[in-house]
Amino acid sequence: MDEKGINVDLSGFSVLSTLNDLEGIYIRQKFLVIEALTGCQTPNVYNVFAGNEKGHQVGNKPIFQCREKSECLQRIFLLANCRAFEINVKQDDSHDQVVLKFDRDCRCTCLCFNRPHMDVKLISKSRQENIGRIVCPFYWCDKGVHVHGQGDELRYKIIAGCCQLGNWCFCSCQACQTIQFDVYDASHQKVGELWKRSAGCIKQCLDSTDNFEIQFPPNATGSDKALLMASAIFIDYMYFEINKDQPEAHHHKH
User: Fold this and answer.
1) Coil, strand, or helix at residue 115?
2) CB 182 within 8 Å of CB 191
């Protein structure tokens, strides 16, 4: 039973068992040679690795792969923070079975009106269950998202203050490509951290790939961790995804 008294049976979803055992995760956006060479916007792919208590990568084998499904024309002509996409998450040992799905509709927004959101669903062979949504509220200067659970209750706020070098300097060096997001619970107590980091100077010069480290809150459930993983990918699209055909979008998206 959740905070609003909704009885939800989430047993049978293997992804939750995997996430329950993790203290953190490391998300690495896949470097796509075709995109780097041609400048043509291709669907994003993210590999998710187990992480330690600080979100640093543990092991070399990914536990999940997150693959974008979207329309080519939207990738070319629309900004990443408004175009529609679907992210299918497959578990390494799931035999090509999608275990999580992130859905976002195309949405044009202005200041605090019609803010973007992304729905998060658990998937199994027999059913699917919506476990929450990630909402991007309006901030004048800061970056961040709000994480809502299945009953639309606020679970977390993930916020990066504007006074960080990575918000204003767009060089390819590590210091200028690192931004810290603090994870707060519903009572605004800090319970974790999320770091956006560069994929490396050379790769960053060729393509806008980003990596994320997530430190899970101590009392986070498997569903909470799935929502936090989705939040990192949503943050990437909202604030850091660059369409090379639209240079004015370079990191200035709110």
Assistant:
1) coil
2) no
